[in-house]
Write a structure and sequence with these properties.
heterodimer, A: alpha/beta, Arc Repressor Mutant, subunit A, 5 domains, three-stranded antiparallel β-sheet, 9 strands, 8% strand, B: 444 residues, FAD/NAD(P)-binding domain, Enolase-like, domain 1, 3 domains, five-stranded parallel β-sheet, FAD/NAD-linked_Rdtase_dimer_sf (chain B), NADPH-dependent 2,4-dienoyl-CoA reductase, sulfur reductase (chain B)
């Protein structure tokens, strides 16, 4: 599911116009924009007019100028694309439907169409559209309520309030003393310390859980099956005791299902600190599905990079992140794709290195196969876990990399030599773990970049030599990166 | 003034009597769903204990006493809806629809043993006996049963297990927490009871939650929990009770747990409507609102609501969740905060356990006392007692100490009598000041 799924087609185009302008330094020709959007002239003009109206309605410091040739964006320093998204989402009927469902749990078509001031047939249509997007979460709006496994429903609401809807509103409305106390209680029960960012995540989760707690006939059958290997898990046991004791103080009946839901959430959403998680990892059952996939993936990574052994703290960190990734894959379905991280990582392949992207895909295959989860294009969860693997791999490679000495020895005219050496150094700056300089004969290097084969190999001593195919080409950059990786492992 | 009270159990009757005391001319009408008056919940235990010879004797007030107080009561009156705008109550009485108006309404409809999570728990073969008719049915069924499964190891469940074992029945208890009576006692206090339970041959399943109950063709009932199941002749539900209030109108605000929201004067969100007893949350040992369905709270809230009918006069002081009972040969009592429940509090608590000789005589029995107190201020927050001697009354002293915010140092100075046959050198409840001075030595 994407944030755009909550918007109408024309609104998505309008947002895209903003996005394109930001990506193109605030300016784009009319024809380039037409080309990018693949729309008719008339609809682009309608879109631009509609943007003008919407901007006028809000007090954001944003303007789009259009002089017949160039479309230009002017945005104050305090406004980001996020604000523009927010403004569009605030008007979204689909967002309103989900918010209403969250607040009231149930609606009738007449009641909701009156509340949203739309016709019943449009409401039906919106619900139908929403249902196509909710499918990947394996939940559905039917008979005026959300149907599906309880864990999936709460997970969807969590993603919705964390990434789509304005969470500050939810927090200001529902997060009171009781919630802060609930978090403190959880810390005491688990003997753990929860960071301020995680505290906010947890409060949102608890607010959602609180509003769902009295729903009758919650579905937990699937979760019960998934939890079978975890019934003796020490963390689960603590959570179970906490849940039963907490609700014994109210006139609310809960069963293990409630404890299972919180177990899955706490483990998948990195609520525990690395330290507290490590304590748990030491006593958890290593043969249970998540732990065993953690081990398998960790070993695959270690073999891939030819590490003999990872530094102690890095290994702990790796397991910490792997458990989150794998707990998500094990228990949850569907995800909200967040523009920023994923797009940044996939667009910056040059920095990341395409081999890492490829390897991350491999890792996903390992874990999903082990969990017997069928990878499907429509399930965003698989897509969103890849950048997490990539991110982890970057973390590992950059932390294990030693600083490689790279010497640039270009055999061209003096003036060009210095200029191109400088340009090459600048281009290599984003690469981690290297020190680049103009070649000096009396120094020792790990890698030499030159444009001609040396007459005598020995002049570069032990250094590996790479002959540039074309100075400053992307082709070379890709190869250099691979060599650096090889030298590092 | 016309005061209508829905429910004639402890809270409703207490409210009616207090209203009469304060308003001699008021018309007071009690509407009771049950066909009989003032049955003591779990009166069946009194019968099994042979403290009453007939279940029908388990009454806390008679019809004559109500009549004497000019209190009208309709038994078998099933309230169907209330209209707080019109100030009317619709109820079904002797198969007729009746409507009664009120000036003041007190909702004292009590609670039921309901489970929405356990499939099959509503069927007749699953016994509940909080009400008289249920108790009659349970009595007959248990009599012909050899093996009884009890779901829930709270006070009622454990009491029942004790009484049934004494009748030579085979008993299985299934409790979802990892020890019994967890609301009132800490795990380090429950050991003698759990030992006695297992010594008496009871099959105690801890940390197990019941999922389904199935009736078998041979009149047996199977209870499924986790991956296992137990088949017995009868099943007793002794899970937590919850209010059942389908008749409320939308103006009365509820808490998330479906209890009625009331203020300190027990007024609901609607003017002239009060709620008491098991229908509401109370301010608990740590002053936070929790659900404590106990009879002592029902009576006290009934009295407070009646006092505040015309104007707010006294605020309800809250509950320390004080209990006392005898099970498996041990008297146990608890008041205030347990150490386990202190995780819900902002306070940092300390605790201490002491084994105390009850008299100065060589043959004296002992009691184990656990104190829970504020680590900083030393104000006593909770206490638990367990002994083979009857120490139940002492819990009331301790409850008073907690209610009046005494410190452990204050308790040391409290003036108690001395008599060698009844006390030891230092009175039981004074001993708190000797904490940490090897009072457990003789246990080792």
């Amino acid at each position: 599911m994407k944030i755009e799924d909550f918007l109408e087609k024309n609104e998505v185009r309008e947002i895209t116009i903003f996005k394109q302008l930001v990506l193109n330094n605030g300016k784009l020709t009319y024809f380039d924009m037409l080309d990018y959007l693949s729309v008719s002239k008339a609809s682009l003009e309608t879109d631009l007019d509609s943007i003008a109206v919407k901007i006028a309605e809000c007090d954001l410091q944003v303007h789009i100028h259009y002089d017949g040739q160039i479309i230009a964006l002017e945005m104050s320093d305090t406004v980001s694309l996020q604000h523009i998204y927010r403004h569009y989402l605030d008007q979204s009927i689909k967002v309103e439907i989900i918010k209403f469902l969250f607040k009231h749990q149930k609606f009738t078509i007449t009641q909701l169409s009156q509340k949203l001031v739309i016709s019943e047939s449009s409401l039906y249509r919106k619900i139908k559209e929403l249902n196509t997007h909710l499918k990947e979460f394996d939940i559905k709006i039917r008979n005026g309520q959300l149907n599906g496994e309880e864990l999936q429903i709460r997970y969807f609401y969590f993603q919705f309030y964390y990434y789509i809807e304005d969470k500050t509103y939810l927090l200001s409305k529902y997060a009171g003393k009781q919630m802060t106390q609930a978090v403190q209680t959880l810390e005491k029960f688990l003997d753990a310390e929860i960071s301020p960012e995680n505290r906010q995540k947890l409060i949102i989760w608890l607010i959602i859980s609180k509003t769902r707690i009295t729903i009758k006939d919650q579905q937990v059958d699937n979760l019960r099956m998934q939890m079978k290997p975890y019934l003796k898990d020490p963390l689960y046991h603590k959570i179970q005791v906490m849940v039963f004791r907490y609700f014994s103080r109210y006139s609310i009946e809960v069963d293990e299902g409630e404890a299972m839901i919180h177990f899955a959430y706490l483990l998948a959403f990195s609520i525990l600190s690395e330290n507290d998680f490590h304590e748990y990892r030491m006593i958890r059952d290593r043969h249970a599905p998540i732990a065993s996939v953690d081990t398998q993936v960790a070993e695959t990574i270690i073999i891939h990079f030819n590490f003999r052994r990872l530094p102690y703290m890095l290994e702990r960190d790796m397991y910490y992140h792997l458990t989150h990734i794998h707990t998500r894959l094990y228990f949850f379905q569907g995800d909200v794709e967040i523009y920023e991280y994923q797009e940044i990582l996939s667009n910056e392949k040059q920095i990341v290195g395409s081999h890492l992207v490829f390897f991350a895909d491999e890792l996903l295959k390992v874990s999903t196969e082990k969990f017997n989860r069928e990878s499907s294009e429509s399930n965003s969860l698989f897509r969103t876990e890849v950048p997490k693997y990539i991110s982890l791999l970057i973390l590992i490679t950059s932390k294990t990399a030693k600083v490689l000495q790279v010497g640039i020895d270009l055999k061209i005219d003096d003036l060009y030599k210095e200029t191109f050496s400088q340009l090459l150094m600048r281009k290599m700056r984003p690469l981690n773990g290297i020190q680049t300089e103009a070649y000096e004969p009396n120094k020792t290097y790990d890698l030499i970049l030159t444009n001609e084969s040396p007459e005598n190999q020995r002049i570069y001593k032990e250094a590996r030599v790479y002959i540039l195919a074309k100075i400053l080409s992307d082709y070379d950059m890709e190869n250099i990166q691979q060599i650096i990786l090889e030298l590092n492992t | 003034m016309k005061v209508v009270i829905i429910g004639a159990s402890f809270a409703g009757v207490a409210a009616a009597l207090e209203t009469r005391k304060r308003h001699p001319n008021a018309r007071i009408v009690l509407l009771e769903k049950q066909a009989t008056l003032a049955y003591i919940p779990n009166g069946l235990h009194l019968y099994w204990k042979k403290e009453i010879e007939d279940l029908n004797k388990a009454r806390f007030i008679t019809e004559e006493q109500l009549v004497k107080n000019h209190i009208d009561f309709h038994l078998g009156a099933n309230v169907e809806k209330i209209n707080t705008t019109q100030k009317t109550v619709n109820y079904n009485y002797q198969e007729k629809e009746e409507v009664i108006t009120y000036d003041k309404l007190i909702i004292a409809a009590g609670s039921k043993q309901l489970s929405e999570k356990i499939n099959g728990s509503a069927q007749e073969s699953v016994l509940k006996y909080k009400r008289y008719d249920e108790a009659q049915a349970a009595l007959a069924k248990v009599k012909e049963s050899n093996h009884v499964t009890i779901i829930g190891g709270g006070q009622v469940g454990v009491e029942a297990a004790d009484l049934l074992t004494r009748q030579q029945k085979k008993v299985t208890i299934i409790e979802s927490m990892d020890y019994v009576m967890f609301k009132y006692l800490d795990k380090d206090m429950i050991q003698p009871i759990q030992q006695a339970i297992s010594d008496s041959g009871i099959d105690l399943k801890l940390g197990e939650t019941v999922s389904t109950i199935e009736s078998k063709t041979n009149h047996k009932v199977t209870v499924n929990y986790g991956e296992e199941s137990v088949t017995s002749d009868a099943v007793i539900m002794s899970v937590n009770v919850r209010p059942h209030l389908p008749f409320l109108d939308a103006h009365i605000n509820l808490h998330i747990d479906q209890t009625i929201a009331v203020d300190r004067y027990l007024r609901t969100s609607v003017k002239d409507v009060f709620a008491v007893g098991d229908c509401i949350q109370l301010s608990g040992p740590d002053k936070d609102n929790i659900y404590i369905p106990l009879i002592n709270n029902a009576v006290r809230t009934g009295i407070v609501a009646a006092t505040n009918l015309n104007k707010p006069e006294i605020a309800f002081k809250g509950s320390l969740r004080t209990i006392g009972t005898k099970i498996f040969g041990h008297y146990i009592a608890s008041t205030g905060m347990t150490e386990s429940d202190s995780v819900f509090s902002n306070k940092t608590v300390k605790s201490s356990r002491q084994k105390i000789r009850l008299t100065s005589l060589p043959s004296t029995e002992t009691a184990i006392v656990k104190w829970v107190y504020d680590a900083k201020t030393h104000v006593v927050l909770g206490a638990q007692l367990i002994s083979t001697a009857n120490i139940l009354e002492k819990v009331n002293t301790l409850a008073l100490a907690i209610q009046t915010k005494q410190t452990i140092e204050d308790l040391q100075q409290t003036d108690y009598f001395f008599h060698p046959s009844y006390t030891q050198m230092i009175a039981t409840t004074n001993l708190v000041s000797w904490m940490g001075e090897g009072l457990f030595d003789d246990e080792n």
